[in-house]
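go over this chain:
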Amino acid sequence: MTTGVILLNFGEPSEPTREEVVPYLERIFYNNRFLEGDMPEAQARERSRELAEKRAPSLIEEYEDIGGSPLNPQAKAQVDAVVDVLTERGFDVTGYLGTQFSEPTIADAVAAAKADGVDRLVGLPIYPLCGPSTTVDALADLNGAVADADWDVPVERVSGWHRHPAYTRLRADNVRAYAEREGLDLDDDDTAVLFSAHGTPTHYLEEGSRYDVYVDEFTTALAHLLGVSEYTVGYQNHENRDIPWTEPETEDVAVEIDAERVVVEPVSFMHEQSETLSELDIELREEVEEAGKELYRVPVPHDDPRFAELLADLVEPFAADVDPEYYQLRECQCAAEEGAMCLNAPRAESE
């Protein structure tokens, strides 16, 4: 039995051109259209286009500054690495990349899997911390794409996985190795550790998203593994709409923090992309250096072999026809539809 593994991703434009960036942004804004209240579809699409046109010039400039986004090539390499691990474990698998807002789309991945004749699908979002417009929406898009393809195939979905112990160790080891290379003492009074998470509109938190809880528990665990006694959490917000976002903002924390050196670990990301290469390496660095401090940004371990191993761990129970609860996977509390499994759900009271 062949298992099709679709790694679900955000995606970024392959070229820093208006022809690619504007439609990409339109899809993102339309996906989050409810943040400004209910409105007719035509009005929502017009508003999404307006926001995309406004944001596009600065985003194109960001992509040009970093030489284009490396996200999609890194994501494709991760698919290949996961397939290699599962194949070595003796499973018959085929891998696909499906992105929410660029190409190949999630629908493209489903179409390719259907054409290949796989017997079942496993959808696994690549996002470290489960959020509504990322993990949850990506899984919903997968279900929708399968339905639109009129394909009667079993679909398994994995959502939150940041509690996998191998992942926390991987990030801790990566931070520690970077600090050693740079000659940094993370517990020095003049060195501040700043965990930077992708921001989210507070609307989602008010509706029940536990994203901020996941950020807090992951950064707490990471700090403990690093042996860091003090640290700060900041959010990288994208305030394209006049609505409240998570606080405090990463740039405010980095500038105001009382330390000579600021070490930034981008905990929400498993790729190098515009949010790391531009927002942190260029924009944040300028602000921090203007404030008379030094910025050290920890690289994202997107190609660490242990990452492919832990993603394979999440797929393995479905490829092996083993009860996913044996692997500590339980019914997800965040997914909009039943059937998704995650590592974040609590045990049942009877357990």
